[in-house]
Design goal:
This protein is an alpha+beta fold. The chain has 3 helices and 9 strands, in the order αβαββββαββββ.
Length: 150
């Protein structure tokens, strides 16, 4: 009976995993024309590191990974060429003062491992990955320093 229970758990895990996300690397010529145009427009003068196609919950999106000045950023684009999100690796000093202060306070006694600006629908938030007390923590802060997720 235990093995049937384990089998049911594995089936549930595998089924759930298939709804999460499938990602595959693609070449520029494999992208729909509007996506190619968006990639070219948003990566002018930058080093294009890679392209991928992601399917999540039946929706296909395209991601361009870019590198500039030693930092990376990801641009998520829908099939019509609309940019959905941009995630840029940034420095602490580039943040608005209230956001910087909130992240420094959240990281007190720990180390900021990664810092990104995430822009979606014209709204930018700042995500900090912090290692504190041996644990990884993610803090999301608005430009005004308001914690959105901790």
């Amino acid at each position: 009976m235990k093995s049937l229970g384990r089998l049911a758990v594995w089936v549930a895990v595998l089924t759930a995993g298939s709804a999460i996300a499938a990602e595959r690397k693609v070449a520029m010529q494999e992208l729909p024309a509007p996506v190619q145009e968006a990639v070219r427009e948003h990566t002018k003068g930058l080093m294009l590191v890679g392209l991928s196609e992601e399917t999540e919950n039946g929706e296909t999106l395209y991601e361009a990974e870019v590198r500039a000045n030693g930092r990376t950023w990801d641009i998520l684009i829908d099939p019509t060429g609309k940019v959905i999100t941009e995630e840029k690796e940034i420095s602490l000093s580039s943040l608005p003062e209230p956001a910087r202060a909130a992240i420094e306070q959240a990281a007190e006694g720990g180390t900021i491992k990664k810092l990104e600006s995430v822009t979606k629908d014209g709204t930018t938030l700042y995500e900090a990955q912090i290692k504190k007390d041996g644990k990884k923590v993610e803090v999301v802060v608005a430009p005004d320093g308001t914690i959105q997720k901790n």
